[in-house]
Every structure is written in structure tokens, then in C-alpha cells.
Design goal:
The protein is mostly helical and 91 residues long. The termini are far apart.
């Protein structure tokens, strides 16, 4: 009896690896966004962004109104976030 570990013999294992890699990527993306914002401002709690599931894709969509009213940030940090996101969009 011959044993093989090729991906064709166990396609579900390959699919599981892809799923785990995708989930890890999403987690690291969210973590990096929260960490970046914390380093930039240190004036709000990153938990707010986690609670509202804001990641790298949704961050550019946030308006000043979202930051002030929904997330409850102060005006200064909200303006800094919008400025940095706007600078990143133009790069």
C-alpha cells in the first residue's frame, strides 16, 4: 500500500489551508489597521474600531460624521484620521 501526501490526494486539506490563510490575513489586516490608528492618535480606544468591525477596506469609507457621531471620537482625532486616510488615497 502506497501513501501519498500530495494535494490531489487530500483536496479538503488544501482547501482548509486556504481558508486558514485567508482568515489569518483578515485578522492581521484588522489588527494592523487598529494598531496603526492607535500609534497615529493614541486618543481613542481601538476596541471601538473592533466593535464596529472597521478594517482596511471600510476605513476609507468613514466620513467625519461617522467618526464623530457613530464612533464618538473627538474632533481632533477624527480630523487626523480623515487627513491620513485622504493622504493614503492619493498615494
Amino acid at each position: 500500500m502506497m501513501f501519498t501526501t500530495s494535494s490531489t490526494a487530500y483536496p479538503h486539506v488544501q482547501n482548509m489551508h486556504r481558508l486558514v490563510a485567508a482568515l489569518l490575513f483578515v485578522f492581521l489586516l484588522l489588527l494592523s489597521v487598529v494598531s496603526l490608528l492607535c500609534l497615529m492618535l493614541c486618543a481613542f480606544t481601538p476596541q471601538t474600531f473592533k466593535d464596529h468591525m472597521i478594517d482596511g477596506e471600510t476605513l476609507p469609507l468613514l466620513s467625519e460624521e461617522h467618526l464623530l457621531d457613530t464612533l464618538g471620537l473627538k474632533l481632533g482625532p477624527a480630523l487626523k484620521i480623515r487627513s491620513q486616510v485622504g493622504n493614503a488615497d492619493s498615494v
